[in-house]
Amino acid sequence: MTRLLLLDADGVMVRPAGYREALRSTVNYFVDSPLPLEEESLTELERRQITSEWDMAPLLIAAYWNDILSRQPMPDLPGDVNSAARYIKRQRHVDAPAHVTVPEFRLQHGKYPARSAYESDCFPTLTDPLRMDLLTGSRSVQKSPTTRILQHFTLGSEHFTETYNLPAEVETDSLLLRFDRSPITEEVRAKLRQEGNHLVGFTNRP
């Protein structure tokens, strides 16, 4: 008898700790004070159907900056993500938020969550050019500064350059390789590879 076995990548084939560590490293690359991102808060974003770190990163950074700018307006804030990050690091004199909350917004059909947040006018203290640079294009390494840095931490600098033919902006090893582990034991692997079994790995990640 032929058996087709579907194995989800995250949580079945691999314990996906690397993606989470890459997300944390990316957020803290752009913010000016270490921001603890507890797993509970990230799971809450998943519950809201914000399941990709490519969307989580810009939303969490936007929430951090929105908190600061609501208490310390910065009229001359640059409109691009990298310049804004450097500017806020130099100019902030209010306390950094100890944690952030991504506001509720309606997910729009056919649009990624970060883009939906932009079109829902979330994070009103950010200028529109900065909101656009931060929240749109989250599936493009070329267009999105946060996705580009996230992929550095995910793949490692060397593999980032090999994959995208772009120069590395951050020197790092692959956090996927460092933190991901397979929960499949040799005993389970032997059962999976029995005659008649056909194995398929799949994921909902982009």
Secondary structure: elements and pairs:
Elements: E1 3-8, H1 17-30, H2 39-47, H3 53-71, H4 81-91, H5 113-119, H6 128-135, H7 145-155, H8 157-164, H9 175-179, H10 186-192, E2 197-202
Parallel strand pairs: 1-2
- Shape, per Cα inertia axes: elongated
Radius of gyration, in angstroms, nearest whole number? 19 Å
> In what order do the strands lie side by side in the largest sheet?
1-2
- Helix and strand content put the structural class at mainly alpha
Order of helices and strands: EHHHHHHHHHHE
**Percent of residues in helices:** 40-55%
Instruction: Count the E strands.
Output: 2
Report the total helices: 10
Query: Largest sheet, described in full?
Result: 2 strands, parallel
Query: What do the pLDDT scores average to?
Result: 94
Descriptive report:
The structure is a single chain. Helices cover 48% and strands 6% of the residues. It is mainly alpha-helical and 206 residues long. The chain has a two-stranded parallel sheet. α1 (17-30) runs parallel beside α3 (53-71). The radius of gyration is 19 Å and the shape is elongated. It starts with a strand and ends with a strand.
